């Protein structure tokens, strides 16, 4: 009995060593990629003695000794929670960590809080999250309630369909089709505004993974949102799903934060700019979204 316990302990120890023995954060995708696609996520230098006079959010973070970051939990490659380990991984999660490090906090001080699209403005405005990183398009309408650092990425609206469906090839082939998207998102608004399908054919959920489930069970014919999100779902299930057509919008992703906290916004813009300039942004991309082979152009920070 004791020997068995000892052996089990040694095995766990060995596994832990394998997982943590490399420099930086262990690559979290768990996709088993090798060779050119096995780029690991970078490690971030935690800034010392950061002070941001005039930032109410930063004062609150300091008081708590840690930060709460709003994210998505079901978007492969961007923000996804591993149901077994409870760990979050993806491009957005790395951006969240990079900013936290620049503010003086390493990952152990981060509490991730899943906030779906329809609940973002409220979660930011009422302080449930200190900032939000989750495929959050910068729009003038949202700027009435929150502010945005960035953009740190640019996506475009696309379509996900079943692989054997050749009847949907782009946004102008959706009439008469059931189209699914998420409450409070820019893509569902665009489907409505442009009348891409009949109002009765628009199906809406809180999460994109729920739409993808309905696509698989043939209760809907297409899922629409940012191509970056849809590519992640297609990559998980390449035998049954595909992304079709050309992107039909521009979706610049911002980090959402309190509307009045321009001090924090400027600081995050500085941190993003530095990551774009010193190669860290590219490393993050290569270790997450870029694993599918896609390339991305660097965004230009829009200060205001
Ligand atoms: N980027 C779009 C938005 O902010 C769609 C993705 C999402 O819902 O997060 O609404």
Structure overview:
With 304 residues, the protein is α/β, with parallel strands linked by helices. It has two domains: 2-12 and 156-244, D-Maltodextrin-Binding Protein, domain 2, CATH 3.40.190; 47-154 and 254-292, D-Maltodextrin-Binding Protein, domain 2. It contains ten helices and 13 strands. It has helices at 2-20, 56-64, 91-102, 120-125, 140-143, 186-193, 208-216, 227-236, 262-277, 280-287, and strands spanning 67-71, 74-75, 79-81, 88-89, 110-114, 131-132, 146-155, 157-162, 179-182, 202-205, 222-226, 241-244, 251-258. Helix 3 (91-102) crosses helix 9 (262-277). Residues 117, 134-137, 182, 185-187, 225-226, 251 line the site of glutamic acid.
Major pleated sheet: 5 strands, mixed
Ends distance:
65 Å
Quaternary structure annotation: single chain
Overall tally of structural domains: 2
| H and E string | HHEEEEHEHEHEEEHEHEHEEHH
CATH topology of the largest domain: D-Maltodextrin-Binding Protein, domain 2
CATH homologous superfamily title of the largest domain: Periplasmic binding protein-like II
How many separate helices?
10
Helix content: 25-40%
List how many beta strands DSSP finds: 13
Q: Which cofactors or ions or other ligands sit in this model?
A: glutamic acid
Structural class: alpha/beta
Please write the CATH class name of the largest domain.
Alpha Beta
Radius of gyration: 20 Å
- Whole-number average pLDDT? 90
Shape: globular
| Residue runs with pLDDT of under 50 for 5 or more positions | 1-36
The CATH architecture designation of the largest domain is 3-Layer(aba) Sandwich
């Amino acid at each position: 009995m004791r020997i068995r316990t000892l052996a089990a302990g040694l095995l766990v120890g060995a596994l832990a060593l394998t997982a943590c023995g490399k420099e930086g954060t262990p690559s979290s995708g768990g996709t088993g990629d090798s060779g050119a696609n096995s780029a690991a996520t970078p490690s971030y230098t935690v800034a010392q003695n950061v002070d941001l006079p005039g930032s109410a959010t930063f004062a609150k973070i300091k008081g708590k000794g840690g930060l709460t970051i709003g994210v998505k939990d079901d978007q492969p490659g961007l923000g996804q929670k591993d149901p077994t380990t409870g760990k979050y991984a993806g491009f957005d999660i790395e951006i969240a960590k990079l900013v936290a490090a620049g503010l003086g906090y390493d990952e152990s001080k981060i509490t991730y809080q899943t906030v779906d699209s329809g609940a973002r403005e409220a979660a930011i405005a009422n302080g449930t999250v200190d900032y939000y990183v989750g495929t959050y398009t910068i729009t003038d309408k949202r700027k009435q309630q929150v502010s945005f650092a960035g953009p740190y990425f640019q996506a475009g609206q696309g379509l996900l369909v079943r692989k054997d469906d050749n009847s949907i090839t782009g946004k102008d082939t959706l009439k008469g089709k059931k189209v699914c998207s998420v409450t409070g998102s820019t893509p569902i608004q665009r489907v409505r505004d442009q009348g891409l399908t009949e109002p009765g054919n628009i199906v809406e959920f809180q999460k994109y993974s729920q739409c993808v489930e309905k696509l698989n069970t043939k209760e809907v014919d297409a899922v629409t949102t940012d191509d970056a999100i849809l590519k992640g779902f297609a990559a998980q299930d390449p035998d049954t799903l595909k992304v079709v057509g050309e992107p039909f919008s521009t979706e610049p992703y911002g980090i959402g934060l309190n509307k009045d906290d321009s001090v924090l916004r400027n600081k995050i813009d500085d941190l993003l700019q530095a990551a774009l300039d010193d190669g860290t942004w590219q490393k993050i991309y290569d270790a997450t979204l870029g694993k599918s082979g896609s390339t991305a152009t660097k965004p230009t920070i829009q200060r205001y």
